Amino acid sequence: MKGTGNKSAFDPSFWRDRAMASSALLDMRRLTGEASSRTGRPISLMEVCGSHTMAIAASGLRRMLPEGLRMLSGPGCPVCVTAQGDLDMVLELAARPGVIIATFGDMLKVKGSSGFDLQTMREKGASVRIVYSPADAVSLALQERDRQVVFIGVGFETTAPVVAGAVLRAAEEKVSNFSVLPFFKLVPPALELLLKAPGHNISGFMLPGHVSAVIGLDPYRFVADKYSVPCVVTGFEPLDIVAGVNMLLRQIVSGRPSVESEYGRAVRTGGNPRAVEVMREVFSVTGARWRSIGLIEGSGLGFSRAFSEFDAAGRFGLSYREAPEPEGCLCGPILLGKASPSDCRLFGKACSPSHAVGPCMVSSEGACAAWFKYGGQ
What we know:
Order of helices and strands: HEHEHHEHEHEHEEHEHHEHEHEEHHHH
Number of domains: 1
Strand order of the largest sheet: 2-1-8-9-10
Mean pLDDT: 92
Number of strands: 12
Helix content: 25-40%
CATH architecture: 3-Layer(aba) Sandwich
Oligomer: single chain
CATH topology: Rossmann fold
Low-confidence stretches: 1-13
Radius of gyration: 21 Å
Shape: globular
Structural class: alpha/beta
């Protein structure tokens, strides 16, 4: 299904150097043929990050892929992987008097199992505020001392250190009416889950640049060493993405999988040790529930004992309850690379950005939103 976007594949705003783009795309075609010949099967590369999914769609790259090469969207959209039961906890808390929910805008229209979302709750009188950083939520708590401000902690290793910094500030300034619902996810355990699945067809991973700027390259080594699957950390410009794809294809052709970085201008091998230190000070590794996947041990972050007073679930006595996925929604299989948005019978019909059924259409990083706006393959 075609989307509503009208960007040309070679619009200068995306492809700033046409000659370089043409050369790189020719290399991609040649390398795809060599990789397919070596493996005896088509090549399926997974872009883990939702920002990559949107960049691939916006640049028109998906429609320029050579025969035998496919890009799969992965579980790298933080809103999309938030479990339905976690969303229900948020909505339950929003209904309580004296509570202000502070959240990023992407969470506003994700529906819980009741069919309500935070936008609906706000229209019904709940206090829901959009903030642009966790620090804004702390400032809001300082302004609203007679009310409890709860920040919805959705995100990966990129977001968690920033939230940890806000918690440290709240602790230092003794902001007793600020807390966080920690729904953070860790990328490497999700990759292992995908690779453990029988019959997976992932030939290589395009790894998220933002997450890798925090954790570095070492946490991904097991992908190449244990599962013999190539990995490349990639930037977000179209030529970054093509270069990353070609680096993955070269690894496949050579038969020597490794972990490389195309995004050297932002990602260091050792990541950002200070960000990791702050994250580990405030949070500890725990299990986390992923939408349509379930509990993945060691894939989330909860509060460490020293900062448990800032855990909103404990403060308000919230408990997780299993909740059904929206009927007919394929968001789960899409996150696992097992389906494309166009495979969903709701896509572009009952489910659109103006009336989204699942979070993959709601989020600005969701695969369904990208395909609807720019068109699929």
